[in-house]
Amino acid sequence: MRAPFGLACVLALFAVLPRAMAQSTDWPQFLGPDRNGIAQESELISQWPAGGPKVLWRVPGGVGMSGVAVSGKLAVTMWNSPEGQVLVALNTADGRRMWSSVVSKEYENAMGDGPRATPAIAGDRVYAYSGDGVLVCAQLATGRLLWKHDVVGTVGAKVAEYGMASSPVVVDGLVIVTAGGESTVAALDAEGGQRVWAAVDGPPGYSSPAVLNIAGEKQLVAFTAVGVSGIRIEDGHVLWHYPFKTPYDCNIATPIEVDGKVFISAGENHGCVMLDIQKEGDKFSVDQSWASVDVKSVMRNEWQTSVLIGGLLYGFDNVGSAGPVTHLACVDANTGETRWRENRFGKGNLVAADGKLWITNMAGEFIMAKPSASGYVELGRAELFGRTRQAASIAGGKAYVRDDAEVVCIQLTK
Asked: If you write DSSP's letter for every residue of 30-76 in order, what string do you get?
């Protein structure tokens, strides 16, 4: 069910709103500049230097699962503190804390404490979503809160069982997250925080929405607990929907665009599907280009989003409920054929930059690997941080990784 809210007023403000994420070599949001896990970087190292990767700085942090957003001289993340869930900005040169702002009360959960979502930087503002569903907008330079909105409370929904994990996406003057309830995808005015529209019934799941080009149109694609939907950005109209329900509402990975198609994947032994979406007139049709949905699926992303490079999907295949065994896999995006699988690789996360895979794992290792259709090729491995679920954020020739105790900045240039 869609519910528009004051759209005409918001459209009138578009000229003065932040229109796009920061570009160049920033990492301004979850999964990077294009929200696909690929950094716009070049001339990075191809092997670890003698003695291992150079750690430029490491500073105390706090408990949480929020990744690091980077824009210019600031690296921004979230964690639990005695004051509550805080949004924190660090100087990229030396890790000095530039400011911190309280977003909501401390968040505790049996699956891990602290905020889950990664902040999004757009222009001179940063948007952050707490584990209990409070969305804030802060001034990037100072951390001063400009507005605050209890998204989950406003729609009368419950906080998701494992916490609110939707990393905000900012597009066309709107900031969008999932909330749950009768209309789970919520779009707010990025300038003032008023709700503009809401769409898609049912629980939110834990995925972060993405802006993709589908059937020749820019759409918001949201993967909720009940399935994946294409949504018209300006008014929240649902253009198409594909049911895909996973046990425990554990749809977590972000949808990926593959030549106009949409790839979705989930753990809990569910699997993955490549969707072919076509438009005829003003109607959309959804068909399976290929599917692998069972306990022997080619790719079961638990909480990691795969990365597409050269027509191949690289990602973590989690076996069993909650993924007690995890493989690293490479799958042909056009056919669903497994090209290779590194068995029992272990839980981790990955991103890509400068033609290489940069992998963080829960053993605290930072791994560099070469994308290859023929097999796993490791270029380097070093233990640099504590247990973490976060992928590295790569910007300005550096990698930023945080665990539950520190934020670490690693040099990736010679």
From this structure: TTTTTTSSB----S--SSPPTTS--EEEEEE--S-----EEETTEEE
Q: DSSP string of 370-414?
A: E--SSS-EEEEEEE-SSS--PPPEEETTEEEEE-SSEEEEEE---
**Helix (H, G, I), strand (E, B), or coil: what is residue 112?**
coil
* Token representation of residue 153: 């409370």
Q: Which burial class, exposed, middle or buried, applies to 281 when counting CB atoms under 10 A from its CB (0-12, 13-18, 19+)?
A: exposed
Length of the chain: 414
pTM score above 0.85 = yes
Q: Nearest-5° angle of CA 347, CA 349, CA 352?
A: 145
* Separation between Cα atoms, residue 268 and residue 117, nearest integer Å: 21
Judge contact between 231 and 200, C-beta under 8 A: yes
Which pairs from 292-296 meet CB under 8 Å and 24+ separation? 292/336, 294/269, 295/269, 295/319
Q: Any bridge partners for residue 99, and if so which?
A: 89
* Nearest residue to 63 (alpha-carbon basis) of 107, 126, 128: 107
pLDDT digit string (tens) for 357-406? 999 999 999 999 999 999 999 999 999 999 999 999 999 999 999 999 99
CA 365 – CA 387 distance, rounded (Å)? 9
**Measured distance CA(307)–CA(406) in Å, rounded:** 26
Return the H-helix or E-strand segment holding 264.
strand 261-266
pLDDT of residue 324: 78
Residue at token pair 């406003």: 154
